[in-house]
Amino acid sequence: MKRLLYAVFTVSVLAAPAVSSAQQSGSTVTREQVKAELIQLEKAGYNPARRDPNYPDDIRAAQARVAAQSGAAPGQTSYGPANGGTSQSGVPGK
């Protein structure tokens, strides 16, 4: 029984790095792009070190200012939730 447990443990330890990965294969944003976006947000008035109870409003306002300066439509940044879409749950109505 101990041999079986050791074998299962060894296989799981050896298989864990193959299954888990720290980097997503579909990610196209580089570290430099993330740093550049953070610098733009800080110049627009966002301070990530400040503990703000209105965090989502604060970052959205800074993103809107950056978008207005660059001429892009608000909400067209690299990060954040999707603006559209719906979801339903439960049983369909009769």
Description:
The protein has 94 residues and is mainly alpha-helical. The chain has a domain of 49 residues. The chain contains three helices and no strands. The longest helix is centred in the N-terminal third of the chain and has 18 residues. The N and C termini lie far apart (56 Å). The relative contact order is 0.08.
List keywords for this structure.
mainly alpha, 3 helices, 50% helix, extended
Q: What is this entry, summarized?
A:
The protein has a domain at 28-76. It has 3 helices and no strands. It has helices at residues 2-19, 31-43, 55-70.
* Arithmetic mean pLDDT: 75
Q: Helix- and strand-based class?
A: mainly alpha
- What is the tally of beta strands? 0
- Low-pLDDT stretches are none
Q: Tell the overall outline.
A: extended
Roughly how much helix do the residues carry, as a percent range? Answer: 40-55%
User: From the alpha-carbon coordinates, what is the Rg to the nearest angstrom?
Assistant: 22 Å
Number of helices: 3
* Terminal-residue CA separation: 56 Å
Strand content: under 5%
Compressed to H and E, one letter per element, the order equals HHH
How would you characterize the largest beta sheet? none
Question: What is the topological layout?
Answer:
Elements: H1 2-19, H2 31-43, H3 55-70
